[in-house]
Design a protein that fits this description.
Blueprint (H helix, E strand, L loop, with lengths): L1 H18 L24 H15 L4
Length: about 60
C-alpha cells in the first residue's frame, strides 16, 4: 500500500512538473528581401514590346 501511495504521489508530481512546460513552438522563418533592381534595363523590355507593336500595327501593305 505504501508503494502505491508513493507511485501515485510521484505520478502526480511528474504531471504537475510537466504541466508548466511549454509546447514546441516552431521558429519563425525570416524572409530575406532582395533589394529592388532599378537598372536601366527594367524599362527596355516594355519599350521594345510597345515599339514592335507600333511598327507592326502601323505598317501598311505596299
Amino acid at each position: 500500500m505504501k508503494k502505491v501511495v508513493t507511485f501515485v504521489a510521484a505520478l502526480l508530481g511528474a504531471g504537475a512538473a510537466a504541466a508548466g512546460t511549454p509546447v514546441y513552438v516552431a521558429p519563425e522563418v525570416t524572409m530575406v528581401e532582395e533589394p529592388m533592381r532599378n537598372g536601366s534595363g527594367a524599362w527596355l523590355i516594355p519599350l521594345a514590346i510597345i515599339a514592335i507593336l507600333a511598327l507592326t500595327l502601323t505598317a501598311g501593305d505596299e
